[in-house]
Amino acid sequence: MTLKIPYGESNFQKVIKEGFVYIDKTQYIPMLEVAGSHLFLLRPRRFGKSLFLSMLEYYYDIAYKSEFETLFGQLAIGQAPTPTRNSYQIVFMDFSGIDTDGGHDAIFQRFSSKLEMHLQTFLRRYAYPDSYQEALRSKISPADKMQQFVELLGEQKFLLLIDEYDHFANSILADDLKLFQRIMGKGGFVRSFYEVLKTATQRGTLDRLFVTGVTPIMLDSMTSGFNIGKNLSLHEKFNEAIGFTESEVMSLLQPLVDDCSLDIGDLLFDTRRWYNGYRFNLKATETVYNANMLLYFVDSFDRERCEYPEPMMDENIASDYGKIMKMFSIGNRDTNFEVLDELINTGEVHALQRRKFEFDKGFDRDDFISLLAYMGFVTLGRKTLSGEVFVIPNYAIQEFYFHYFKVELERRNQFSIPNHTLRLAVEQLALYADFQPLLAEMVRALQLLSNRDAMGMDEKHVKVLLLTLLYQTQIYFIQSERELNRKYPDILLLERNPIAVPYQHLIELKYSKKSDKEAGWAAKKQEGIEQVQGYLQLPEIAKLKDLVAWVLVTDGEQIEALRIQTTSL
User: Of 167, 164, 189, whose CA–CA distance to 179 is shortest?
Assistant: First the structure.
């Protein structure tokens, strides 16, 4: 059975009427109504927020009352609707796509135009007099337009849905903190707009409000300008409201299992390590999948050849996350780089999770790590006495880190490692088990780094450099210090569907101090050989076909590669 996958679809009515598969999230509607009237739910980019918001629009909009059974009859809420169903006129706003170039006045104009477009759409949709539209056009500022709109509606209650409320604001923040504070802070045109909304809720005209976005930074910056919103983002009950649980993912993967005679366990294992891992409250029992990443996988799966998509990450999603990486420049860039270095070395960082951001008091390490969590670059792992431990959620995000780490290494040390050279070098390793081209690139980079004393060079940093070079290609699935029967091989380069390669690799790296070159080098080499021979006895390693094992010995400038005989070749 082939399902219609709603990848890239954010219109709930289209998804239901045109027979796309829909993962039912309508059971959260009663929970939202109990939670409050003015709600915020924040999740990383491309997580499924827009479809969730569209579902709420069709549920509450009075204009779709006659379609309730068609749209919701087969869903959870259709069996037990709330009294508020199809009882509101809906104002829907989407603040993504606002160009933030050109400074304050240009952004002011674009925000104002976007707001007016949404308000005019509402007036036409519900057949208000043309004079109302003229009255709106006569106002200049976003606050004045919104105030005029509320006055025109009089006693008519409405429900406001805002999608990507902070999309443009996060772009401004990454480029210019002072401009961000001018726009969002006291007297800023965005804060003034939200102050009008707050007044409308107090008058009872704006009866309900539901807002999605990525971070609470803009909300926090407005402080008293809009202090009535309730942020549900870190609440246990809403951990799985947006994104997919594993049982929901299984329903999407089952047709692939049936069509291609795949093992559901293997398929879940691969999709879990690529797209799962997000937890927004430590008491939540489940981690969730990024919905759009998973839908891309299912939609792009090659059913004729029964092969995984290539690449495993949609370029549109990759582009979005690349833009978000600009936020690594917020605050102290050196402190942020230390966090990045710690993450790719250990896979985790410790911080006290921030629920509010107060730029007037500065922006420290805890703020930065908390921001990474909201953006989906880290997620909650476990609790400690001093705070929380944040971990990298999945392999897709791990790739982003290593791509960015290379950029930062080059920027900080003023040298370049050409990507095309790396691709050719890793290709030689994959096709011919020839390590020399990649070693040449490593040696060149190490010598440049040691000249600048950029890192306290040791085995850990040499290994991170090698991983950084490897992650610039998409030939192998890369595992670092994977636990195998309480043993931890430094690096495994494994075949990744659909890319077939003649060789897989196990790499053990040893560091020998320059001060003890002769004896130390030989001892480290022997130590590495013994470790690799132990790894090769492990069942998980022994079953790997076409495996080549290596010991790399380095002093931080030079590297020797020793190939170890294996039984798989």
Answer: 189
* Cβ(31)–Cβ(239) below 8 Å: no
CA separation for the pair 49, 52 (Å, rounded): 5
Burial level of 349, CB count in 10 A (0-12/13-18/19+)? buried
Amino acid sitting at position 351:
A
Angle at 314 between CA 308 and CA 315, to 5 degrees: 135
Are 300 and 314 within 8 A, CB to CB? yes
Whole-angstrom Cα Rg for the chain: 27
Q: What are phi and psi of 105, to 5 degrees?
A: -65, -40
Do strands 206-213 and 158-163 pair parallel, antiparallel, or not at all (unpaired)?
A: parallel
Cα–Cα dist 381/348, whole Å = 8
Are 374 and 446 in contact, with CB atoms under 8 Å apart? no
Pick from 558, 541, 74, 552: nearest CA to 566: 541
**504-511 and 379-384 strand pairing:** unpaired
Model confidence pLDDT, tens digit, residues 58-111? 999 999 999 999 999 999 999 999 999 999 999 999 999 899 999 999 999 999
Tokens at residue 228, please?
């009535």
| Summary count for the chain: helices (H), strands (E) | 24, 13
Q: Whole-structure pTM over 0.90, yes or no?
A: yes
CATH class of 414-564: alpha beta
For residue 460, give the 3-state DSSP assignment.
helix
* 424 token code pair: 């050719």
What are the distances in angstroms from CA 510 to CA 434, 515, 522, 549, 550? Answer: 19, 15, 11, 14, 11
Tokens of 395: 């392999």
Percent of the chain with pLDDT over 70: 96
Sign of the four-CA dihedral 56, 62, 64, 67: positive
Q: Would you kindly state where each structural domain of the chain is located, as residue ranges?
A: 12-238, 246-300, 315-391, 414-564
What Å distances lie between residue 78 and 36, 72, 73, 90, 159, CA to CA? 21, 5, 4, 20, 20
Question: What are 200's two structure tokens?
Answer: 């409308």
What whole-number distance in Å separates Cα of residue 90 and Cα of residue 125?
10
Pair of tokens at residue 406: 């290379």
Query: Helix 264-275 crosses helix 395-413 at what angle (to 10 degrees)?
Result: 30
* Residue (of 493, 499, 447, 501) closest to 470 by Cα position: 493
